Amino acid sequence: MSSGKWQELAKAKREQLQQGIPKEWTISPRSESNVLQIPGECGVLSSQELEITSLSDVSVLLRNIATAKWSSLEVTRAFCKRAAIAHQVTNCLTDAFFDSALKKAAELDDYLQRNGKVVGPLHGLPISLKDQFQVKGYPTPMGYTSWLDKVAEEDAVVVQILRESGAVIYVRTNVPQTLMWTETYNNVYGRTVNPFNTSLTPGGSSGGEAALLAMHGSILGLGTDIGGSSRLPAHFCGVYGFKPSYHRLPWYGAVNSLDGQESISTVVGPMSTSMSGLQIITKAILDAKPWRKDPQALRKPWDHEGYALSEHVGGKRLCFGIMWDDGTLKPHPPVLRALRQVKGALEAAGHSVIDWTPYKHGEIYDVTRAIWYADGGEDYEACLSPTGEPLINSMKPGADPHEVVAHRKPREPLSAYKLWQLHKQKRRLRKEHLDRWESTSSRTGTGRPIDALLCPVAPYVAVPHGQTRSAVYTMIWNALDYPALAIPVTKVDPSVDTVQSRERFFSPDDETLHKLYDPEIFKGVPVGIQLVTQPQEEEALLAMGQIVDDAIRKPSETCGL
Amino acid sequence: MSSGKWQELAKAKREQLQQGIPKEWTISPRSESNVLQIPGECGVLSSQELEITSLSDVSVLLRNIATAKWSSLEVTRAFCKRAAIAHQVTNCLTDAFFDSALKKAAELDDYLQRNGKVVGPLHGLPISLKDQFQVKGYPTPMGYTSWLDKVAEEDAVVVQILRESGAVIYVRTNVPQTLMWTETYNNVYGRTVNPFNTSLTPGGSSGGEAALLAMHGSILGLGTDIGGSSRLPAHFCGVYGFKPSYHRLPWYGAVNSLDGQESISTVVGPMSTSMSGLQIITKAILDAKPWRKDPQALRKPWDHEGYALSEHVGGKRLCFGIMWDDGTLKPHPPVLRALRQVKGALEAAGHSVIDWTPYKHGEIYDVTRAIWYADGGEDYEACLSPTGEPLINSMKPGADPHEVVAHRKPREPLSAYKLWQLHKQKRRLRKEHLDRWESTSSRTGTGRPIDALLCPVAPYVAVPHGQTRSAVYTMIWNALDYPALAIPVTKVDPSVDTVQSRERFFSPDDETLHKLYDPEIFKGVPVGIQLVTQPQEEEALLAMGQIVDDAIRKPSETCGL
User: Fold this and answer.
1) Active-site residues (chains A, B) (predicted)?
2) Does the distance separating the beta carbons of A259 and B375 come in below 8 Å?
């Protein structure tokens, strides 16, 4: 293939990123498929830096900075180094703002020392960003070569708020071309791999963020989510991912794929190595009154009563629904085992769990995809054509460029009128789902409907590159606008997660998926579950997420390591 | 013109409505142009019924029912009678549910007597509904002959909530064909006229509701608003109209024009003869947790702190912005006088008022209309074609059916992709407007941005039938999703509202509008102003509306009479 304009642009950007990593933080090429131990072994990080970055709990790290146990400079340098290592083994970064981050950290340390108080709730904390959140003075290419010269005039609103809250912005992370994939590969930065097994995908579209967090190159970051993009990679990489409701967190100033599509809004999706990280960043952002900066942000402050579960008897004796499958694709054995484990843990903690029957997931799936792709590909074309960069149609390594995987087949563009008809259909489906949720009050024994719903994040764990399908288990909650969490539970254990024979299948796709399962391929890979509540119940979801997390986890256990 | 299928359907429906009015409530034809005094003079209502229906303050009426000073049956019968009279002189009704209303009122009286308490915050209160809110067992034709046989299987969610709160549903009110007009005329029910002067329009699209309220045939009702449809008729008829933010009040189960268009959402728009009516119904609906019935309703309970103006120093020494014109159409003299009167009253009450310069109203206007009409007329066609009913292209009495007024010219349908580009443009305009609002903090002297904005509801008062233009002064707040109130201020007085000569005009349209003004045409017609706040500040807006209302009104003055 001859090297055209877009190849040159991409090469230059990759070299620039490479040059941003100090020589003393580089390591020699490695051949392990599980690369999680490399930061601890490579000798780049000091023992203090390893201690800092081995933390999972964001609240502890913030406290250690606020009490000057560790300076922000020490913490930031530790995460910059570990992010640099993570990048060298997973290709997770798109930007390294190490110099400005270390300078900012020193300023924050100085402020704390002079004033005896923190600048805000995120004082001194390095926070990573998916390559959609604009940072003033830099382009946000989002994997498109044609966007490499579009320099941001302002920080995205959420980045402004993070900075005002004391956060240190130090890296941005990789995405798939067009974003509308659950893997992470593009023509600018190439492919991000799963640190648990580099032959597997970390998921997408916030795949760079998830790989970085799993490597403990970050403890807290922002992904985004329109169909599972924060939750799926979290599940694949053993970290926590959060999809709030539309416009709960400020989107303004983030770049996007299919921009202007507002029927199913992309949301800011916090990701972390701990539940505390998701809670802290959500509260910090809401406490900054984002509606004063983003015209679409809901005027809905952090709800203390919601977090105290005032509508859920304070979190005592909750009743969870559990959906074992969605009626279209039956989950692989480790996913079902994770659900059983969570059910058992919750019951042991005094809660109850009742079955939830899936409802019209196929129809919701069809409507959602019809809405997303209503432009018939015009948005992608507008982003690709300036440099002649090709559309990626398969994420299989070495795929024939003309091969188009099933869920990426081109669609006919729709008229605005046709789009309106889809909105009507979606509204009806949302009403039917709400009524079903409310109707569970006859079965819970609490007088309330189910407090939250447990279900798979995906029918599988991290799969080999190019093997993901559409995000059926996550996108439904985007369509219904139900907030959802991905919570890590366990890891694939071939001795118990054996192949289960099945005689009946929902569909040929279901049968194909069934045949994909091989315990040896997925050995040791993380498995999460999804927790879902009603629209705009973010605080209650985060509180119930903590209850689920406490129920399934021993206190000493750290995440992802 | 030969009488085809649609004419027969329309005639049958009108006759059915006529038959629903008891003979003893009918009056002989009248020739006055101002028909407001007819209920008091016609002899149909008893003196007690006149006393009941002369009230404007909803809180007083509710108290009188709750304390059994008046029974709900007495109140309901009084309003049924007065609504029947109002209909005979303004053609404001589409449905008269008198029998079921009286039955329900008697049940509520019985409940109160037996239990010594009310069923809910709207106990025994008759509430009128625009002909968009479905009532179980009845069609909601919304002015289309083809919808006359579409019988509702359920009440609209907001109707369910009103009933559960104790309201009595007794009438529905007229609308324009297609709804997208600021007048009220359709092929089923014909034209609604303004009770202050029947040669003038009551406005639209909630024109039936406004005419009924002005006649005191209702004290509280629900209109809707996508571009001014609750505020403009309120302004034209001397009553109060409220446009909340998108999805603050539950929409589900209401029928609509351009249904599925969600970029600029139609909202439930309460209308009343008093500010207390708007406050009481909004709180009653929110206290019923509408998000448990409407999947799109915001989970945002009534905000007591917001209503206490906790972010606006408790309502002491507020600073209002005032916009005298929008830079496209200069308001007629009485509209400017109403603004000056409000400014003076607020300053006399200790508040300050600073000028606000309009910003890109023309661009917002263009984007809004492009979004509304993105279907190129396909929705109208789908509603009209089943019966062959013609599209109304002009609301001038006796207009040539082929004449199409300027703001109703057909548009080309847009693709979904093109619609997305309009969303991007709108988002940027909303951001610029928000930043401008926030930036006023440098000029208010309070340390805060302006607390609310005063502006015209329209550049004119109620105009002769067929003379309205697009709703430039109201639709901008729909596009920006800023909640807004229309508050009646004064009436046109030819001795002071004289023609003002102008040498410069914003445009030929502006000049044409200028020439329309003739004090004698508009003599005695109501004039309102608009009050606007930031998105989802409904409670603060209602509280500040009360402050404005108190400042301009003597306590003894009643509304609309």
Assistant:
1) 130 (charge relay system), 205 (charge relay system), 229 (acyl-ester intermediate)
2) no
Structure-token pair, residue B200: 């003038």
Nearest CB among A420, A480, A536 relative to B298 is that of A536
Smallest CA–CA separation between A432 and chain B, in Å?
Answer: 9
Instruction: Please tell me which residue of chain B has the smallest CA distance to A430.
Output: B295
In the prediction, which pLDDT does A402 show? 85
Neighbouring C-alpha atoms within 13 Å toward the C-beta of A400: 4
Whether residue A556 has pLDDT greater than 90: no
Q: Is the pTM of this model over 0.95?
A: yes
What is the CATH code of the structural domain delimited by B5-27+38-552?
3.90.1300.10
Q: Which amino acid is at A304?
A: H
Give the tens place of pLDDT for each residue, A1-53. 445 799 999 999 999 999 999 999 999 998 999 999 999 999 999 999 999 99
Report the run of H or E that residue B217 belongs to, with start and end: none
Query: Are residues A418 and B416, on separate chains, in Cβ contact within 8 Å?
Result: yes
State yes or no: B38 annotated in a binding site. Answer: no
Q: Residue B426 contacts by C-beta under 8 Å, 6 or more apart in sequence?
A: B263, B364, B367, B368, B371, B479
pLDDT at A494 over 60: yes
Catalytic sites of B, residue numbers: 130, 205, 229
Contacts A414 to B, Cβ<8 Å: 415-416
Q: What is the token pair recorded at B498? A: 């004289």
Q: Do B536 and A296 count as a contact with CB atoms less than 8 A apart?
A: no
* Ligand-binding site membership of B205 (annotated): yes
Q: Which whole-number Å values give the CA distances from A554 to A348, B16, B311, in the listed order?
A: 14, 72, 44
Mark yes or no for CB contact B434/A295 under 8 Å.
yes
Chain B: residue whose CA lies nearest to A419: B416
Q: Where are the alpha helices (DSSP H) in A116-170?
A: 157-164
Per-domain boundaries in chain A? 5-28+40-552
Could you give the CA distance from residue A444 to residue A192 in angstroms, rounded to a whole number? 43
CB-based contact B169:B97 (threshold 8 Å): yes
The pLDDT tens digits of the residues spanning B225-249 come to 999 999 999 999 999 999 999 999 9
Average pLDDT over residues A104-122: 98
Q: Which residue has the tokens 């909105």?
A: A423
**Antiparallel, parallel or unpaired: β A319-322 and A452-455:** parallel
Are B536 and A298 inside 8 Å of each other by CB?
A: yes
Of A502, A457, A201, A486, the residue nearest A336 (C-alpha):
A457
Question: Could you list the active site residues of A?
Answer: 130, 205, 229
> In angstroms, what separates the C-alpha of A122 from chain B's closest C-alpha?
25
Among B420, B431, B434, B541, most A C-beta atoms within 10 A, so best to mutate, is B420
CA pseudo-torsion sign A198, A204, A205, A211: negative
